[in-house]
What we know:
441 residues, Rossmann fold, 33% helix, Transcription Regulator spoIIAA, 22% strand, CATH 2.40.50.140
Amino acid sequence: MLEKVKKVALTSLGCKVNQYDAAALTNLFEKRGYKVVSFSEEADIYVINTCTVTHLADRKSRQLIRRAKRMNPVSLVIVTGCYAQVSPEEVKNIPEVDVVAGTRSLNQVVDLVEKIYLGESIETRYNLVGRFNCVQPYEELPVLSMTERTRAYVKIQEGCNNFCTYCIIPYARGPLRSRQPEKVLDEAASLLQKGFKEIVLTGIHIGAYGQDMESQINLTNLLSFLTNIPALKRLRLSSIEPQDVNPALIKFIATQPKICRHFHIPLQSGDNEILRNMGRRYNVREYRDLANLIRERIKGVALTTDLIVGFPGETEQQFKNTCLFVREIAFSRLHVFKYSPRPGTLAATFPNQVKEPVKKERSELLISLGKELAHSFALQHVGHEVNVLVEEEAGFYPGYLKGLTDNYLTAIFPGSLELRGQIVKVKVKGVENNLLKGMII
């Protein structure tokens, strides 16, 4: 290692997969002896792990790149993530950028940094971004530790083969690559040994886990292996596509108290024509049947979803269809996105692009509906007991702690921070700002 300890600061935009990748990169730097500091501090190296799911994400990425160079004009600025992977030349042409690394060359970043500092590399700009092959192995980049103290993310696969017409992610993340089950189990066991109580399985298309492998493994098999780890208290799934939630998976989860009663299943639209134009692989009836089956088998389950408003050609009636369907399903939480044309995607070429003011209005209406539905779901828990994983102090309620129930509700209650990381039983007395408010029993 170099004589002077270099300081590195990392920041990550976007999804949980990006956060996982940033944690893995942090571990790589720490392993080589670098000191990891806050992104708001002066550092020798800045890593911006970017997102490109919307044009706003691109803009935020560029702002962070410029901010990094302002904090230390002689620093090395490295850009990783989806924006760098999809638009490497655009990113490389930003004056403040020194290295463009994308999503598939993270394990080369630290080696390149050391070559630069040792004077072994004489280029002034570096582009590590490579194209994905049709058949691509999973790039093992394990996480040894995380900044969160209670929940740990474990990536089980990378990439997606769906190519929905609006989505840039298959271009940014490449084809489906599943991680070997023994690697997933080893990483989960290691994180649990460090004191984490909840493991969140993450990836770009987790429901397709195993489909690219010669062995007959699937997501249900993987869950079965994980639930056999004695130290595991909770196992949570991140976003999973409707067509991947099959009766066998639901039946297994219903029998496993360790698996959280929470399904995040993207809907995107409640109108069949819009779903077809999006290239989604289900219709409204199929989604309704799925939601009903889950609720029939798993009592108290939380159903959360993603929605896109203002998709090209979306009429007022089609938007109303979405609102009616969302109310019918009674989701417990909505993530609402305004459609953003992504260069290179099919939907970006569609006629009848919806104007921004219309997108804004529709977004606000759905967000308002989401708050109403979230409040209704929270109220169902008043008078009941819930198990809460204690996470931190509830700063806005002095003397209170806050944590997460297995069905994805935030609860607040009086208590000492010594309880952080423990699962406690809370009697819910009321709901305030969509938070469950109660007492430990």
